[in-house]
């Protein structure tokens, strides 16, 4: 957008934490029911609780992982491909999921950047055509960027897109 650290990193981390909790709520509840509560009540061992907790977590991550990322890490790890993807080790599933999420994040960032870049181009062209070469375009374009973001209800649009991108 042209302004560094807007919103501040603490706000971004808070947003990330609460969106993660919102998206992961069904998985967290399932892990609590199937693994944590029986372990807390001393009905199962720690190893059994860990193996039970991995299943819903793996299912969530595998559902939201691109096939190409999963295949890449399966090939690099030397793990034998299995019929049931849930049988893959977490050392393959986690980096595959992270790679898919990074790609999704960069795609979202790029799609957010395009309208702001267009505003910069229009403002720069307008200033140049008026002969105002010494006036920084970022100074003029920032209010337009903020107006665009507020007008299209940017936060709700961004959050709903993030939440709806998970299956």
Give a structural overview.
The structure is a single chain. By secondary structure, the chain is mainly α. The longest helix has 40 residues, at 90-129. Helix content is 76%, strand content 0%. Helix 2 (46-63) runs parallel beside helix 4 (90-129).
Quick overview:
It contains 6 helices and no strands.
N- to C-terminal distance: 30 Å
Q: Please provide the count of β strands.
A: 0
Strand content: under 5%
Number of helices: 6
Biggest pleated sheet: none
Which stretches of 5+ consecutive residues score pLDDT under 50?
Answer: none
Radius of gyration: 22 Å
* Total domain modules: 1
Key words describing this protein structure:
mainly alpha; 167 residues
Which helices and strands appear, and what pairs or packs with what?
Layout lengths: L8 H32 L5 H18 L3 H11 L12 H40 L7 H15 L2 H11 L3
Helix pairs in contact: 1-2, 2-4, 3-4, 4-5
């Amino acid at each position: 957008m042209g302004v560094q650290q807007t919103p501040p990193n603490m706000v971004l981390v808070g947003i990330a934490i609460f969106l993660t909790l919102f998206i992961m709520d069904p998985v967290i509840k399932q892990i609590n029911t199937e693994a944590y509560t029986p372990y807390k009540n001393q009905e199962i061992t720690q190893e059994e609780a860990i193996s039970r907790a991995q299943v819903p977590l793996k299912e969530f991550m595998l559902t939201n992982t691109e096939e190409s990322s999963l295949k890449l890490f399966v090939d690099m790890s030397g793990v034998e491909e299995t019929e049931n993807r849930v049988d893959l080790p977490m050392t393959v599933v986690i980096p595959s999921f992270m790679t898919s999420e990074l790609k999704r994040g960069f795609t979202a960032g790029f799609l957010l950047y395009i309208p702001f870049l267009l505003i910069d181009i229009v403002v720069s062209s307008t200033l140049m055509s008026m002969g105002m070469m010494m006036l920084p375009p970022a100074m003029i374009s920032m209010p337009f960027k903020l107006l665009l973001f507020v007008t299209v209800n940017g936060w709700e649009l961004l959050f709903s897109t993030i939440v709806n991108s998970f299956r």
